Amino acid sequence: MMIATAYAIAFSLLTVYIFIMLKYIRLWNSTPDFSFSNSNSDVSISVIIPFYNEEKTIDRLIQSLLRQSLKKESWNVLFVNDNSTDRSIEIISRLCEGRLNFRLLNNNGSGKKRALTTGINSVREGLIVTADADCSFNPDWLKTISSFYHKNSADMIIMPVVMTGGDNFFQQFQKADFLALQMVGAGAALSGNPILCNGANLTFKKQKEQVTMNEKYASGEDIFMLEWMKRKGREIRYLKSKNVVAKTPGPETVRQFINQRARWISKAGGYSDRSVVLMSLLFFGVNIFQLILLIIGFTNHAYLALWLAFFTLKTITDYSLISSGFSFFETKTSTVRFILMQIIYPIYMLFVSFYGIAFPVKWKR
C-alpha cells in the first residue's frame, strides 16, 4: 500500500512538473528576441558592481564596460569595494581616473547585500543594473536595456545569464544545471509569474522605498528583491535578447561548485512568495521521488519498469527544456552526458540541500 501511494504521489508531481515545463518551453519558443532601436530614451542607468578580491577576473568586466555603445552621458558605474585585500582596489582606482562616469565606493558594512545597498543608496533616480565583477557583456548591453525600458517601462527587468567553461563532465554538469535554472526563470517570467532572477544581470527602477533583501541570508539578494517587487505589485518583465546575455565563468573546483550551490539553497528558508516556495518544493519533490523509486526498484525488481518510465519522462522533459535554449545561449550538452547527469542529479541535490542548511556559506569568504 505504501509503495502504491509513493508511486501515485510521484507520478502526480511529475505530471504537474511536465505540464509547467512544457508551458515554459512554449512561451520561450514563441517569444521573439528583442531588437533594440536607437530610441532617444533619456533614462539614466547606474551599474552597481560589488566586488571582493577580483583582481584575476575584473579585466573581462572592465573591457566590456569600456566597449559599451550607449552614449556615456546616459550611464555610470559604481564599483563597491567589499573589503578587498588584493589588487582589485588599485586596478579599479586607475580605471576611474579621468572617467567621470566611473566611481569607486567602499561598502558601508560587510557582504554583498550591504555592498549593493551602499550602491543603491548612492543612486538618486533612473535605472539600476546590478552585475557581478567576473562577468562580461555585449557592447550593446546597456543600449538594449535602455531601449527595452523605453518601450516597456517595467519596474524590474530580468535578463539572461550563461555560464561559460570547458567541456569535461564536471563543467558540463554545472553549465547544464545553470541553463536549466535560466530556462525555468525565463519561462516563469514570460508567463507573468516570475520566480527566479539573477543578480549578475538584473535591472530595476530606483524605488522611493528601501528595497529589502533579507540580510539574514548570505545570498539571495536577487530573489528577495524579486519577492519585494511582487509584493508591491510592481511590473516585472523578461528581456530576451542575445545583446544582454551576461557571461559568467563557472566554479573551477568541485568544492567551489558545492559551496556556490549550497549558498544558493541556504536562502530558501527565507522565501515568502507562494509561487517561489511551491515551485521549489515541486522541483525538490520530483527529484527526490526519482531517487526513492529507484531504491524501491532495487529492493523489488518488479518496480524497476515504473522507475524507468518516471526517469524517461522526466529526462525527456528536462532535455527539451534546456535544448530550447542551446541556440540562444550558444551552449550545448550531449544527450548521453545529460542522461548520466540525470541519474546523479537527485543525489547531488539532496547532498547540497543538507550541506547548505547545515553549513551556511558566506559570499566569497
Question: How would you describe this structure to a colleague?
Answer:
The protein has a domain at 34-168 and 191-252: Spore Coat Polysaccharide Biosynthesis Protein SpsA, Chain A. It has twelve helices and nine strands. It has helices at residues 2-30, 58-66, 88-96, 112-121, 141-152, 169-190, 221-231, 254-266, 274-299, 304-323, 326-329, 335-358, and strands at residues 45-51, 75-81, 102-106, 127-131, 156-158, 161-164, 201-205, 236-238, 246-249. Helix 9 (274-299) crosses helix 12 (335-358). It is globular and about 75 Å long. The mean pLDDT is 90.
In short:
By secondary structure, this protein is of the alpha/beta class. The chain has helices at residues 2-30, 58-66, 88-96, 112-121, 141-152, 169-190, 221-231, 254-266, 274-299, 304-323, 326-329, 335-358, and strands spanning 45-51, 75-81, 102-106, 127-131, 156-158, 161-164, 201-205, 236-238, 246-249. The protein has a seven-stranded mixed beta sheet with strand order 3-2-1-4-7-5-8, with helices on both faces.
